[in-house]
């Protein structure tokens, strides 16, 4: 089992933590990780875009001029796609972009992403994380102490002070341990997580 250092919010080492290899030491499955990212981005799409085809545009029922003898190219409708105000050739229509992944595939993708962060030494464990007040400056100091800039902060329980302190930092995102996603893990350079959150993740995915 992998051992990682545990830090406090001052950036000082206060101990070590043994990680469960069933979660943080699996064989990385790049295909499932890719599928999970594509699935998450696709599922965010609303799919409400719509445009009218030539059959749906108002007007254009009469042939604009006779077939032959005018010198013009033959035309059947002023609402054909080549006319201004005409319909769209392959008009986009509302559709469902969502991609389904099996539960076990999702779990393995998350474990693969977590393992990749541990292997790259981008997995920082804090003994505890909490502020007495909402202060963005304080959050910035903690990240500087840990020598990280772009970070995903994983909490074991909802903490408004921490969440609101991180909200104005463009390269920082806070999530609860039960809401982590492969996309977020890979998007941010470092994963900052509390000891209790590690325990919660191991309990779910081990």
TrEMBL record:
Gene Ontology BP term (one): translation
Keywords: Ribonucleoprotein, Ribosomal protein, RNA-binding, rRNA-binding
Transmembrane segments: none
Any one GO CC term of the record: ribonucleoprotein complex
Biased composition (Basic residues): 60-71
Region (Disordered): 44-78
Top-level taxon of origin: Bacteria
Coiled-coil region list: none
A Pfam family per the record: Ribosomal_L4
SUPFAM superfamilies: Ribosomal protein L4
The keyword Ribonucleoprotein is assigned to this record: yes
Gene Ontology MF term list: rRNA binding; structural constituent of ribosome
Subunit structure: Part of the 50S ribosomal subunit.
Cited HAMAP family: Ribosomal_uL4_B
Described function: Forms part of the polypeptide exit tunnel. One of the primary rRNA binding proteins, this protein initially binds near the 5'-end of the 23S rRNA. It is important during the early stages of 50S assembly. It makes multiple contacts with different domains of the 23S rRNA in the assembled 50S subunit and ribosome.
Similarity section: Belongs to the universal ribosomal protein uL4 family.
Protein's name according to its UniProt entry: Large ribosomal subunit protein uL4
Lineage: Bacteria, Bacillati, Bacillota, Clostridia, Lachnospirales
